[in-house]
Amino acid sequence: MLKIIILQHNRRQSIINLARSLSALPSYASLYVPLTDELPRHPESLSIDWSSQWHKSALQATAIESMTLPSRLKIANRKDLTLIEQALNAFDSRNIASLALGIASRDASVEDEQSSIMDLSYNVNHQNKSYFHRLEAFRGLIVNENKTVNKYDVIINQR
Amino acid sequence: MCRAGQTKVEKQPKISKHPFQEFLDEESNRPGLDVNSVRYWSDYNKLYYHPRSIVQVNENEISGPRPFETWQAGEELFDRLDREYEMYDHNFRHFVEECDQLQGLQIITGVDDAWGGFASRYADRLRDDFEKSSVWTWGTENTSKVGGG
Question: So what's the ipTM on this one?
Answer without folding.
Answer: 0.82
